[in-house]
Amino acid sequence: MRAPVSVPSARVLETGRRAVRAARSLARLRALPPRVAAFYARAERRARAAGDRFSLDSAARPEELGQLLRLARGRLRVAELGTGTAWTTVALALAEPRRTVASFDPVARPERELYLALASPDALWRIRLEGVEGAAGAERSGDVDLLFVDSSHEREPTLAEIAAWRPHLAPGAVVAFHDWRHPDYPGVTEAVEELGLEGEELGGLFVWTAP
Question: Do the domain assignments include residue 4?
Answer without folding.
Answer: no
